[in-house]
Write a structure and sequence with these properties.
This protein is α+β, with helices and mostly antiparallel strands. It folds into 2 domains: 186 residues, no CATH class; 46 residues, no CATH class. The protein is built from 5 helices and 14 strands. Strands 3-2-7-8-9-10-13-14 form an 8-stranded antiparallel sheet. The chain has a 4-stranded antiparallel sheet with strand order 1-6-5-4, covered by helices on one side. α1 packs antiparallel against α2. The chain is globular. The N terminus is likely disordered.
């Protein structure tokens, strides 16, 4: 079984030759083959997935990318990578019905489409998982964790037909991780919470938010707000 798995990985990485290589230390795709095969990455088929549900469990709508994966021993560039929210795992697409699942225990963080995902321990869920880094002020990080659920469609009992299919719904939760602490603190994106985070810089932040027509409940705006807050500390 191991030899079959290795053949699949070898084929995948041969096609990706020149892209799947360590850009920082000069390792080749052969090194990546070895690391993935020894590191427990697995090859899975997606043929049995339920196609009757609208939407997707993946974070990104497109798989066309060259992403950077930071592992324990090296950093690699891999093409066609995506994040499966439902299974909390990174997958590289080889074909429409097959993906290579990276061993999460070997991955520290990844950048896909300039979005950084890194692993942290969620004490409430009692497990490690991937979180998106919304902004890093140096003092603390604002993180976002995704989850997905299935919204049941509608059914017409008269015609015995479904009038609207089930669909995947993505959810977002936000956390603060302070540099000196291991744990995460769940927060809501609202004005009072953000002003508490910025402390004595509150008046300057409120003025900045007003002048730039920003919102406290939008993580894109929050990234701007906290980046500005960080500039005030320089």
């Amino acid at each position: 079984m191991k030899s079959i798995l290795f053949v699949f990985i070898t084929t995948f990485l041969t096609i990706s030759a020149g892209i799947a290589q360590n850009f920082s230390s000069g390792q080749t795709s052969n090194d990546l083959r070895r690391d993935l095969s020894q590191g427990g990455s697995i090859w899975v088929s997606t043929r049995s997935k339920n196609t009757n549900i609208e939407g997707s469990v993946y974070l990104f709508s497109s798989w066309v990318n060259v992403s950077t994966v930071y592992m324990k021993e090296a950093s690699y560039q891999i093409q066609n990578l995506n994040y499966n929210i439902d299974k909390d795992q990174l997958e590289a697409k080889f074909a429409e019905d097959s993906v290579l699942v990276l061993n999460s225990q070997e991955v520290l963080r990844v950048k896909i489409y300039n979005v950084e995902l890194a692993q942290y321990y969620n004490a409430e869920k009692k497990k490690r998982g991937f979180f998106q880094t919304v902004v890093d002020t140096g003092e603390f990080m604002l993180l976002k964790q995704y989850s997905v659920s299935i919204k049941e469609g509608t059914f017409n009992p008269m015609t015995q037909q479904r009038t609207k299919p089930d669909e995947y719904v993505k959810h977002e939760e936000y956390f603060i991780k302070r540099k000196e602490q291991e744990g995460l603190k769940a927060i809501k994106l609202r004005k009072s919470v953000i002003l508490e985070l910025v402390g004595s810089k509150g008046d300057q932040i409120k003025a900045y938010v007003k002048d730039n027509n920003l919102r406290y409940n939008n993580d894109f705006d929050i990234s701007k707000i906290l980046t500005y807050y960080n500039s005030l500390s320089i």
